[in-house]
């Protein structure tokens, strides 16, 4: 399959388009123009190109807008992908973009590591062969050893840089060394070390000037902003509306809020916004809020090695007691919607995958009576309005969150307040910062804590959060094993098997299968896992994030609408695809 | 009986690692104070009087020489063992205000050392208050009035009496009075001097009196001895009356000449000598230290160190190559 | 020479007449007089000494001469007439400032600290010159150097020194230089020798006398030490509790003190000759600002000759030739010095408590204090 | 001074000796504190890479991408045993090489510190000097009028400002000037819409953004200055030499200069010391006004477990404090002749 | 001998005089009275305040960030809880920790300063070097780092850490005081009389420094409030809904109080509380200055 961009001639053009690169707070004028460098002044979609741009699709992670590649063919078993590059595309210095550029870029990607280009032969979904078919065609084959559906995505998200600028970084025998590295033994070790050794060189590389195959070229960077101008050699240059793009530097969210209130940004990517500030932003003429799917959810995760959270009745009781609507209203009124179920998926994705079956999942609506039943079923006792452990000892639940995340803190506070109302002694405990929080969470130091789930779009990734390493399932050289709770990062401590519809299933095994199963089978697996998660509740899903973008239509129009599959791509991609029009 | 022999003390300026300044405060001082005796040290500012007093009271260490109390050389004892000896020598500070803790009543100030004493001698607690009253009576104060008061509610003279009473709590054998009357109003000064004399006579307490006002030294009693000290060395010593009426060392003569004359009541001594050169601590150490300021100095004075001795048949000892009695002290006007 | 300001119209030492001077300090207990109703005359060309114990108001009196009583004090009554200046109490602002230093030289009580620690003496001298509009600063420096040389110092070296490089005696001499360098002919020295040792004191006193004579000054010396006054002063005033209780030519007063306080004080001064048994401390304690009786004789609490009149009436200053004495008892015994002496009187009054006769004075004071 | 022959003062060598002693002691102090902070820093729990991964994922990056983006970081983590890391680190210090940052990989710690330092030093210096001048003037006034209403008000307000935490002032100012009466920007160093450069517009914007941080800093330290100056002036006014100067009839101006110079002397020491502290002292202000100075850099470096950056920041702060101490002491001995001659050195 | 009873009687009289003196000092400037009232108010708030509210503060689910009203003088927080109630119930923790910190700071600082100043010599050098070092290590950054290692779970722990970090200044000041007092004759006299070191330090030195220490204590309380609320504000200490610093943090970083007005009252309430407390302490310290000045005590 493939797709082309709408190539209608643009009505009028010019002007400056002002926005913010949400991925890069703190633009550094001294950083190299290097897309591999996290600080580098290569801005995705503007002057830094990928082969394709991943669409924000609910179920299929392998849908793309064209980038360097104009079209692509994926083998039915996803064993290979053949890319045809944009025919008229040239680098900003006038040289054509060729398959050789792509090959060099792939070589560079190997030095950096990553899903499609792992040196570890056992890694899933890695490219094993790169073949230049002709000047504009290239074929990449997946290693047969451990195939994965993420392969295609990994390839499409390859950063493409000009070979005539970057090629010198690679040794002449790079591809031979790579072959050796993907083998076994001491030789392979040495080769691997050699290739990873290149990583720093690549990251530190500073091309003297920007050579871009994207719609814009970097003109200059100063501490406040990066200024880019239109690349007239870009294949779709005729449809790129503005002459210039300003990417503003920022150090805090408040700055973005203030610029939004002042109506000075044409687009701002997702930023957390308090309700009152949101009101002020929307009052500004031209400002619009566009909401779309964001494959991330927030959940209260349990440590099942600790009593009484090992008891599913207790977890269910808690689900009945927590009014997630209220929690969301308190914590993230603008950035999230309350989760209906704990399917492990974002609700939108869940509806798409499960269809009618979604409605059959227990929604755990607030129901104190059911909660009481469940608690009784778990053997908990009520003593003078307060619940205690079965043996009569006090039950104190602590909900952990990292202190710097004020929305999580507020949400956790709301959770505990509601539990308090129901006679459960609960309390929020914060941890000084996020690194510490994650470490302590992983060390099993908490009863329960907030935790990101539903990290899509790939279903495999999504369920790895619930039934992966944190819950005891570890993949070693393609073999899955389950480790005991409290060991080797298993902090969730769930059971190895759960009963779904009367059958025992191993959710970890199922989750791993998602990596390679064809779509139909994926659907089945997801149905099972969603059911398992929703009844077993290793976590209680609190809210699903919403991708909230801000646009201002007083200078440009044609922004993606609500739920658009382009919403999570940068303004740069919208511009290169010719979506944005000058007003 | 307290004796000192060849006491020296040199202060080094701390802090400076290289070439710190040195001050030789005492350069070999001998002295002896018998039971109930009175020894006065006089000299200019910076001559080392205070230093000597503090060494005698055990508050300062000395570099060489020996202090013996009742014949026991202190250097033979370990610091801890010296304490009971030095407790028998009490220092009376110059400033009676700072010598008393402003936050404690006189009763508290006296009770603390008395309690210690009671514990040491196994006396009952009631003895403390009794003794405090007794001591205050001894120094001429009304216990009922003084005991409950804070120091700032007393006059300078009363404070100094309290200080003396406090020193008496440990039944000392010697009081070291360093300028003990110079901060006290003129009209009260004699009272303290008389008190010290009285304590000598009645309790047999000896007094080491430090002053630069020679006249006050007389008021400790007829049998007192006077030491004239100059830049850490004793230059003349003898019975007070003898030294005052017939000083032989030019330095002593300078000191006595400098005493203001009560014109109208007194006539100045005929041979007054007042040096114009100021004291210089850093001056050359050779020969007689006073030679540079001395109007009578000869070549010998700068070359040779004079030793304290009785040469010349004077009633006092002196350290001068050219001793001569001079009439420098003012005489009552009537007789002149 | 810097241009010489006329000290008096005819260029001679000025006379000073203090009359009815009262100075009060504001305290939490109200305004209390530190100097009250003082009449004192400084004849031109004389050295007048003022003695008194600590707190008797000497410094306050001295400061009044320059109308420089520091807050919370203020001159509440009286006048200070200085020849060539008029009533200083009425002077204000610039006029007053110019008078200071130029007409009246003041040598500070704590001359040790009367110099700016950060500046050399020379620079402070230049400041002084500029403040008084001296045009020829070179001449001023020369004059200062000469004065210092006159007092036995190396002028050039001293001018180039900071305060901390000078000894106490040197500082005091620098203070005198500052008082004289602008050619003031009235000089006030407040405790010029306190905290100096005997030999330095003698040197300073000699200098004071010599300079006084050479430059034709009118000098006021304030001190708590009777000996100092006796050594330098032609005239003597004895202060007690803010009042001048007796004044007159030094020799006369010392030879024949009339006021019981003067007499007691004289008796209490330790001396180099004479019978030590005769000397005696005064009973009681000197008054402080808060305990000075508002009415009657200030000395009556400690006075052996106390009588009923002392309680209420303020003793008037009665003149005896060149002298004047403020005492009811002395006024009664105009005939001559009273025998008996204060010592015996005091002795009679102590001792119920079994305390020693010589130690008992304060007991009595204490007992009285308690009734108050 | 031509009128009075200048005499060479002993003191040059004494000063040099003093300086040498200070430097030696300061060096030891820096070494000890640096080693201590190294130990502490390396023992903070938390994995910078895991945290960065979760952060990226939360921002909406897909797990694959996030993994790729964080894999890069492994190359930047300090290698070897803790002891090796320590010796490496110390060896680096000798060549002033503080390593590369983890949170912004590839950036030299020294560069980051330098660029952040601009944003701290300039405003804080401005704030300090402003408050110093204002505080000293008001302090003189408060001292002269100390028994009056106004003097009372001045010193009470001084104590209050001195006692109130910086962040309270910052938040109050923020509430007034950015929320209630939004005339000043609440964050950043300049309007991001304005092109940086030596244009009036940009400089104006810089100034406008610096107003709140500078004002907060000035207000917070102003109290201290007013109190210090007041008590210093009161002490000097009570000194005898001032009365003596007045009695000599020195002009008002001269007397005032005597007072001022003597009173301000001890304050210079405090000024030097407080300038040393400015490298670490502005965390609250920078956090509140998102001003990208050293304080914020340090705060973020801790939150991101950016070990090299943390170490560098600690080092900078320590060195600044030590240097400020030395400068303060030397300054004091240069301007105060009493100390210069070594009289009060004990 | 009637001394003891006489002494006792006069002592009560003295105490009465002292009380009168205190009253006079306070009355002389009404601001000082205000200071005492403020501190009394906070003491009341810290002790009795929390009892006025139920243990779990009520929430109004529909009035998040409500504006000030009669019912909610300072509005409500993100969860609909009355902000005033939060400030009042939070005061106990804040004040208690501050007190604990102040006590530890002062006790530690005094002990070390006393020891160094009294012993002098080597001990002094060593202790002062340590103090210097402590003063060189940046305090706030160190606290930030420490907070990742150390959970400040109880007020005591918190106070302990803040105290351990804060004694440097007090130690220096106390040492200086000790050194100067040591020069006074009465300490030397006590040693000459053979009184024990315990007596000298406990009975002679400490009482002389009591006012100084008391004042340092009050100042340390402000410092402790500063540090503690500040750390909560930065968000590095465990959450406590009613903690003033947490309120500031959530209002600014969660509620956007520096951008929009909704969360402004939520921020202002704790802010004003800190401000008022500081004012109270400042005014009382001002009064103490005068009360403890022995010269003023005399009259
Ligand atoms: N602790 C000390 N450190 C350094 N030098 C000292 C010390 N104590 C005294 N000196 C010096 O020793 C010398 C003698 O001092 P001392 O105090 O004994 O003299 P003094 O005769 O008592 O003088 P004064 O009459 O002024 O009291 C002086 O030069 C003094 O500066
Ligand atoms: N600033 C002031 N405030 C209140 N009372 C003061 C002040 N200055 C001086 N006094 C009081 O005024 C009285 C006279 O003081 P003055 O300084 O004139 O005495 P003095 O005779 O010079 O004493 P001394 O010998 O101690 O110098 C004293 O009782 C003193 O307490
Ligand atoms: Mg001495
Ligand atoms: Mg005086
Ligand atoms: Ni009375």
Number of domains of chain B: 3
Q: What would the average pLDDT of chain A be, to the nearest integer?
A: 89
| Number of E-state strands of chain A | 27
Query: What gyration radius of chain B follows from the Cα positions, in whole Å?
Result: 21 Å
Structure classification of chain B: alpha/beta
Intertermini distance of chain A: 34 Å
Q: pLDDT below 50 for ≥5 consecutive residues: which ranges of chain B?
A: 15-19
Task: Count the E strands of chain B.
Answer: 13
State the CATH class of the largest domain in chain B: Alpha Beta
Using the alpha-carbon principal axes, give the shape of chain B. Answer: globular
Tell me the major beta sheet of chain A: 7 strands, mixed
Overall pLDDT level of chain B: 86
The radius of gyration over CA of chain A amounts to 25 Å
Succession of helices and strands of chain B: EEEHEEHEHHHHEHEHEEHHEHEE
CATH superfamily heading of the largest domain in chain B: P-loop containing nucleotide triphosphate hydrolases
Oligomer: heteropentamer
Regions of chain A with pLDDT < 50 over 5+ consecutive residues?
1-11
| Strand order in the largest sheet of chain B | 6-7-8-3-9-10-12
Which class of secondary structure composition applies to the elements of chain A? alpha+beta
- Classify the helix fraction of chain A into a percent range: 25-40%
How would you describe the overall organization of this protein?
Chain C: Residues 331-372 are annotated as: Disordered. Chain C: Belongs to the ABC transporter superfamily. Chain C: It is found in: Cell membrane. Chain A has 18 helices and 27 strands. Chain A has 583 residues and is an alpha+beta fold. In chain A, a hairpin with a 2-residue loop joins β10 (216-222) and β11. In chain A, α9 packs antiparallel against α13 (406-421). Chain B has 336 residues and is an alpha/beta fold. Chain B has 3 domains: 1-88 and 174-180 and 202-245, Rossmann fold (3-Layer(aba) Sandwich), CATH 3.40.50; 96-171, no CATH class; 246-332, no CATH class. In chain B, α3 (106-121) packs across α4 and α4 (126-138) crosses α6 (156-168). Residues 15-19 of chain B have low confidence and may be disordered. In chain B, 31% of the residues lie in helices and 21% in strands. Chain E is built from 11 helices and no strands. The longest helix of chain E has 38 residues, at 197-234. The chains are: A alpha+beta (583), B alpha/beta (336), C alpha/beta (372), D mainly alpha (346), E mainly alpha (299). Chains in contact: A-D, A-E, B-C, B-D, B-E, C-D, C-E, D-E.
